[in-house]
Amino acid sequence: MIYCGIDWAERTHDVALVDDSGQLLAKRHITDDAAGYRILLDLLAEYGDTEDNPIPVATETSRGLLVAVLRTGKRKVFAINPMAAARYRDRHSVSRKKSDPGDALVLANILRTDMHAHRPLPNDSDLARAVAVLARAQQDATWNRQQISNQLRSLLREYYPSALAAFESWKNGLCRPEAREVLKAAPTPSRAARLTRPQLAAALKRAGRQRGIDADVERIRETFRAEWAHQPPLVEDALGRQMLALLVQLDAACTAADDLAKAVEEAFPQHPDADILLSFPGLGVQLGARVLAEIGDDRDRFADARGLKAYAGSSPITRASGKKSSITRRWVKNDRLNHAGYLWAFSALTNSPGAKGHYRHRRDQGDWHAAAQRHLFNRMLGQLYHCLKNRVLFDEETAFPTVLVAAA
Fold first, then answer.
1. How far is it, in rounded angstroms, from Cα 65 to Cα 134?
2. pTM for the complete prediction?
3. pLDDT recorded at residue 39
4. Where is 14: in which H helix or E strand?
5. Is residue 285 scored above 80 in pLDDT?
6. Mean pLDDT within 381-396
7. How many helices (H) and strands (E) does the chain have?
8. Which element (helix H / strand E) includes 179?
9. Neighbours of 190 (CB within 10 A)
10. How far apart are CA 177 and CA 207, in angstroms?
11. End-to-end Cα distance, the chain
């Protein structure tokens, strides 16, 4: 067996090849371009790399064009955690020396000695990987939108509380296009108090509102004209300019989140696992796409349901040493899947009598809300693993016994 380790960087990469005895066979310094990738593939082929028997490769990243080139065919690519690679480095030298060629050699030796302890990158389909890109991008855009919205809300509290009161009854508040159009028309409370009914109606129509315009115009106008505390005029104008700058960022974030959500809605239903995911209570298109993005469609990725639960961080972890033993929640997990699981379990409470009964049972046993919800997510992950493996849809009667349904 020949093993390959690659220490990657932004512009160049260091490659090392070792045999079963740990003897260094070859090392190269390649560039991060098509020419460098060709040198790498020729080097692997020179030492016996074939389509049926490829040389396994270890690196410290799971993304990028370098990984995409290496994953062609049946080659196994192992993404080693940089912290784990640093621990392996101490096994070879106690002087704490470090170099890029040396790190490539360490990565190759990790596969030589402990390849059984590491899992290769999952062999997901191209469609699953495309859904993963879109779902993660939409999730990031949603988080970014909420972050900017929180900044804008904090700023409005300093000088423009009437705007927060006017938009409080609307779902999503400041993220709604109507709220953004009104703020553009009146960036300060003094200008907002002078807005006329036609101006407010025009702002709502520009945002796409077609119904209930007159009622909202009257409510917003009364709110703006009520008695509120004010900043000095110069300070108020300066804060208004700052608010408009934040509003530009919020507009871009809302547009990006909406566009990516539409892209997910187009791509996710095309996947063969979409029907199974959507059959689960609490999973819609966006949330189902996020779950698929993190677990993939490679059925050999997880040996059993316990592996999936540990990966999601829903199963507890036991720490025992001597006479001390504790059972706590996991801190090392897939944060994206864990966040999607929190929303999934929360939504399932109102869409599944069995899920609600299970949650109530855990609360009666003494669990707090977060622990009971995490326990429900853990159970539903096991059900999802079973359904995906056996290609069956979710069934309420099978998933939750009638006792729990009656309790709900």
1. 18
2. 0.85
3. 92
4. strand 12-18
5. yes
6. 93
7. 19, 7
8. helix 177-185
9. 16
10. 5
11. 58
Angle at 382 between CA 377 and CA 385, to 5 degrees: 120
Residue-wise DSSP of 204-223: HHHTT--SSHHHHHHHHHHH
**Coil, helix or strand at residue 114:** helix
CA-to-CA distance for 236 and 115, rounded, in angstroms? 63
pLDDT > 80? residue 96? no
Residue labelled with tokens 């059900």:
383
Residue 408: the pLDDT is 56
Strand partners, 79: 59
Q: Retrieve residue 303's tokens.
A: 């040996």
Q: Contact 126/272 with Cβ under 8 angstroms? A: no
| Strand-pair category, 317-321 with 77-79 | unpaired
Which amino acid type is present at position 219?
A: R
* 57-59 vs 317-321, strand pairing mode: unpaired
Q: Which residue has the tokens 């609600």?
A: 356
Residues whose CB is less than 8 angstroms from the CB of residue 191 and which lie 6 or more positions away in sequence, other chains included:
185, 240
| SS3 label, residue 47 | coil
With the C-alpha atoms ordered 252, 254, 256, 259, is the resulting torsion angle positive or negative? negative
Burial (CB count <10 Å: 0-12, 13-18, 19+), residue 3: buried
- Percent helix, strand and coil across the chain, each rounded to 5? 60, 10, 30
pLDDT at 64 (0 to 100)? 87
3-class secondary-structure state, position 262: helix
Q: Does residue 28 register a pLDDT over 80?
A: yes
Cα 329 to Cα 339: distance, rounded to the nearest angstrom: 14
Q: What is the pLDDT of residue 402?
A: 67
Name the range with the highest mean pLDDT among 128-142, 166-180, 308-322.
128-142
- How far does Cα 255 stand from its chain's mean position? 19
